[in-house]
Structures are given as structure tokens and as C-alpha cells.
Amino acid sequence: NKKFKNNNSVSIIDLGTGAGSNFNYLKPKLKFYQNWLFTDISINSMNYFKKNLNLSNKIIKTKFQIFDVIKDLDKIKFQTFDIVTGSAFLDILPKNWFYKFHKFNSRTEIVLFALNYNGDFKFLPKHKYDKKIVNLFNKDQKTDKGIGDKAVGPGCSNLINNVFKKTHHTYLMSSKWNVEKNYKFQKYFLYFCNKVIEKNK
User: Fold this and answer.
1) Cα(19)–Cα(179) distance, integer angstroms
2) CA–CA separation, 70 vs 94, rounded Å?
3) What is the pTM of this model?
4) Using one digit for the tens of pLDDT, what is the confidence trace for 10-58?
5) DSSP state of 52
6) 90 Cβ partners below 8 Å, 6+ apart?
7) How is residue 23 annotated by DSSP?
8) Is residue 124 within 8 Å of residue 186, measured between CB atoms?
């Protein structure tokens, strides 16, 4: 809020909106009128978000756009936004994307990425093969995810931090995200882990 104390409103673009975690987090924290552009590569995800969108009197404009964060990065006029946000996709991106993204956002006031995978997760209850599964999963995260180049994987947070150090004050913080009671996500993640194991037998 200190960054924009002289502003009547702020413009925000959310990359990979999904279920809207960044919007729900920032909406009450920003004490200004807000203009939001929500983007996602999935029409289904965007429609789900629209259906459950909960606005407030501080939200003066919303816009929705189907957007591929890899192929269409140069189509967004990032200089028109005060804040750029993204969530849970940096680890599948190739290294050159980070430098390209920084080039477009070297003057953006605030860039916020959340839930970046850092290679650290734990299974409960513990099992003797847990470490082996985690290592296999992390190795697979560095492979090409259908983009045409190897993904950065668990090192994504450090990379984006190091790239933006040249132009911004940067901060790396741990997430308090806990999926202990999110059985739907647990089931999805275990299914994904099983696919990785099958692929790397």
C-alpha cells in the first residue's frame, strides 16, 4: 500500500488465475480501487473462476483473457500494470522465459509469484521410499513439460529472485500452504506422482 499511496487505483494482471488464489489474497489487502485482468490458458478454469468470483466495492473493473504465458508473453502490455501476479507454474517454465519476463517487467512496481514449487514436500505417514519418490519427482520436474525446452523445476524461486534483484527489492518467503485436509488435492497429487513413477521406471 505504501508503494501506491498517491494512487486512487491500481491495475493488476494475474497470470494463470486458476481458482483465484492471488485475487482472494490481494483483494482485501489493497486499500485502493482495483482494476484486474485475469488470464488463464484454460477456458474451464476461467469459467469456474468467473462463476465463483466474489467482488467488492473496491473492484472497479474486471477483464478476462485466455492467455498462454509461454507463447503470448510479448502480447501483454505489462507497462500498463502496477502489479503483476502469478501462482504455481514457474517450475514448469524454461530458463529463458524468466529473462524474457524480466525484460518486460523491469519497471513494474510489484511482481508477486506465489506457491512456487521448491522440491520440498513430505508424505504422512512416513514410508521408507518417500525420499526416493521425492528425488524422482524433482528430477522429472526438470524435464520438458510440452514446451520444447527443459523446465527449471524446483530452482524456479531462486532464479526469479536472482533475475529481479537487478531492478527490484526482492524477497523469498516460505509458504504456509498445508494440504492435510484437502483430500481432493491429495488424490490428484498422488495420482500425478504415480504417473511420474510409471514414466521413469
Assistant:
1) 16
2) 9
3) 0.91
4) 999 999 999 999 999 999 999 889 999 999 999 999 999 999 999 999 9
5) H
6) 98, 113, 116, 117, 152, 156, 157, 160
7) H
8) no
